[in-house]
Amino acid sequence: MGNKFVRAIFPGSFDPITNGHLDVIRRGIRLFDELIIAVGRSPIKNQLFTPEERVEMIAELITDMPGVFVESFEGLTVEYASQKKGQVILRGLRSLTDVQYEFQLAMTNRAVAGIETIFIMTSEQYGFTSSTLIREVASLGGDLSNLIPESVHRRLTERFSRPEGARPDPTREVLP
Ligand code: ADP
Known about the structure:
The longest helix is centred in the middle third of the chain and has 18 residues, at about 95-115. This protein has a five-stranded parallel β-sheet, with helices on both faces. The protein is built from six helices and five strands. The protein has helices at about 20-30, 50-60, 75-85, 95-115, 130-140, 150-160, and strands at about 5-10, 35-40, 70-75, 90-95, 115-120.
């Protein structure tokens, strides 16, 4: 990308962050000067962790990554990117199913804001890792040690060890 300073925005729910996300972040920062991990404050999705908790978990994991930052945002990703003077949106790809959805999203973002999206393909071992599956497996007490960082594992265990009834449903989406 020549000598131009390039700031990329990596938007997502990160509920919670997984080793798959971290893999994209580690490889992404090699391509850009700055990478802002942007945690979406979606009003529609029923989230397990609050945006503040998600930002905190990510912040702990990027302390040794110069040029990588994290914050939460509300509203349109393209508006956030333009406000942050980000030239590029970074997204990760796991499968052909991802491609279909991501293609549409990238085309829309380019059409409405002229912003390019750059994709990084996941490492094979994370091809099936999604935050949704992590939440499901964690709620059933499964072993996730290869798929999420230890600090995230601790938070999940803590969240799901609450008394029955006080536990969040890991899969339910709240209707708008
Ligand atoms: P969103 O709700 O915006 O899809 P996610 O947190 O699920 O937010 O994902 C954020 C980005 O990270 C997306 O581009 C997604 O494809 C990518 N991603 C998620 N899991 C992985 C993984 N295991 N490997 C590579 N990319 C991933």
